[in-house]
DNA sequence: GTCTGCATACTCGGATAAGAGCTGTCCGAGTAGCTTAGG
DNA sequence: CCTAAGCTACTCGGACAGCTCTTATCCGAGTATGCAGAC
């Protein structure tokens, strides 16, 4: 039970995109170069975010990705689910159905006490992630590290200038 | 991000063992037959539980596994960790260290706001699992399905009688 | 009858394959902008 | 000089391998039991 690395990348990339906000799209190459990530694989994650309606993409020159949702309305859970697909689903259906006195017509996810306990834990996890919006994170970072937004913006400006070099990676 | 099937098996098997309690050890074959599980693979999970000090094992004839800890002192988290090993650890260390202004000497797991948010969620999950002991689960099952403990005990008695047949599986 | 030694069968334990999913990579479809030729 | 068509280069998107971890299996080490033989 390990989270994909893509989740980490997606979270930080969404945060960076929320600071850009020039209405300007950022390419996979730029976003990957920021953290020195494999370009093509990050692109795969960005595709997933686009399918989920979190980012919007435009092909061709001057294309790239931009944030397509209000950070206030974008929770960490949205991002995690977009990348991971399904989340750890724990259900005892087959187990109890195959045991003595098992009944295939019963939904054991609802009756099994252990299954319910595991679901409560999973729910607590989801609730915690759903309670933090990207805007919350942004505010917290700005409070702790006031220079971060400006530094990030500046980096991406120079990156645009050096675009040709980045593309060679 | 999917939990091992072994977690589910381990939870139910520990619950069953807590009902047996005759001081008598149950073999992998018996425990596996109860849910019609692959014997050798369940054995692997039981080994992990033994290494974690949750079960105790005795080899040879009349051997098997028995619960080696007070159900009051055994949380669901203990069992999950025993099977899964490590739990979903989310840390942004390498990511931020490789970014602009990254510093290899900084522990970003403590400074990164996103990492902290993810840790809070994981903590909520662990706390929820740690708050349920096996004894709690047992009490709840006995309240909802009073006949279950007796039925389980009875099944394992006949299984002992039919031991030879089970071993052929 | 009782004790001792041995053979037997049984159970766990770790070492060993097969499959699924995550990780990483590459090339094609489509588009914006530049170039160039014509009016 | 202005316009328009074509070309170029750039970017996303999905299809294609490599690798780690989960799933599944098998055989060997060690032990309690039952039996046989001696005292």
Strand order of the largest sheet of chain A: 1-2
CATH third-level topology of one domain in chain A: Arc Repressor Mutant, subunit A
Structural class of chain A: mainly alpha
**CATH arch. level architecture of one domain in chain A:** Orthogonal Bundle
Oligomer: homodimer
Structure summary:
2 copies of one chain form a homodimer. With 169 residues, chain A is mostly helical.
List keywords for this structure.
homodimer; 169 residues; mainly alpha; Arc Repressor Mutant, subunit A; two-stranded antiparallel sheet; 10 helices; 2 strands; 62% helix; elongated; disordered C terminus; DNA-binding
Can you tell me about this structure?
Two copies of one chain form a homodimer. Chain A has helices at 5-20, 28-35, 39-51, 76-84, 93-98, 108-111, 113-130, 134-144, 148-161, 163-167; strands at residues 55-58, 64-67. Chain A has 169 residues and is mainly alpha-helical. Chain A has a domain at 5-82 and 133-167: Orthogonal Bundle (Arc Repressor Mutant, subunit A). In chain A, strands 1-2 form a two-stranded antiparallel ribbon. In chain A, a hairpin with a 5-residue loop joins strand 1 (55-58) and strand 2. In chain A, helix 1 (5-20) packs across helix 3, helix 1 packs across helix 4 and helix 2 (28-35) crosses helix 3. The interface between A and B is large, with 47 and 47 residues. Chain A binds a DNA duplex (39 and 39 nucleotides) through helix 3.
């Amino acid at each position: 039970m390990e989270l994909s690395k893509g989740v980490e990348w997606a979270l930080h990339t969404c945060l960076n995109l929320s600071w850009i906000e020039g209405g300007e799209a950022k390419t996979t190459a730029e976003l990957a170069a920021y953290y020195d990530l494999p370009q093509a694989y990050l692109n795969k994650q960005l595709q997933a975010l686009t399918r989920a309606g979190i980012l919007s993409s435009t092909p061709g020159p001057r294309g790239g990705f931009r944030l397509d949702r209000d950070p206030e309305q974008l929770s960490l859970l949205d991002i995690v689910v977009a990348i991971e697909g399904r989340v750890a689903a724990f259900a005892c259906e087959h187990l109890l159905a195959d045991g003595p006195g098992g009944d295939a017509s019963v939904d054991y996810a609802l009756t099994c006490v252990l299954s319910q306990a595991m679901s409560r834990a999973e729910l607590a996890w989801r609730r915690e992630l759903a309670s933090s919006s990207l805007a919350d994170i942004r505010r917290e970072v700005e409070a702790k590290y006031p220079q971060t937004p400006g530094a990030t913006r500046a980096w991406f400006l120079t990156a645009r200038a050096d675009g040709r070099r980045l593309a060679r990676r």
